[in-house]
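Q: Sequence in, structure out?
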Amino acid sequence: MVCRFDSYKTDFRVFRPRTAWFLVLPALWGALLFAGLFAGTEPASAQQLLARHGNWSAYVWTENGNKVCYIFSKPTKQEGDYSRRGEPYAMVSRRMGGKTSEEVSVTSGYPYDEKSKVRLKIDGKNYALSLIDKELAWADEAVVKDATIVRSMVKGLALSVRGTSKKGTFSLDTYSLRGFSAARKAIVKACP
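A: Exactly. Output:
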């Protein structure tokens, strides 16, 4: 994964970071890849499994003396007009140090069309993730707060993610939110 730092320096209007997440999240996604989570094996020793609840898994690891916690899930249903793509995931990250905050991110397994938004729907409520860097999408805090999305996920039953690739194909991934609230409690406890 390419660090978001380059796009941040090039065009400040495209990405306005709230924290150093633009440096951390690509590393987290890379850690997930290399930890073998996509293959269904246990993560590397640098990461510690906190809990598994329903379709959501919670992990913690330490970076520069600060804890980073995250929960993630694979979709329960995948649709779209794509011919091939990588693994889609939804993730909520929580980082300690300074101001603790949570950040929602998704990947649909392909480079997104940067001119379009990734659409989330949680039990009929619509949200847009407009900060896009290759295969990852985040919420623009000026438009929709991550905390608002997380609250909806805690209360909700299902999350759908609709993305459009650079090739113009689309995907619609559905995630069960069963276990999300309990997994989130595990990362809130580990990263207060």
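The radius of gyration is 15 Å.
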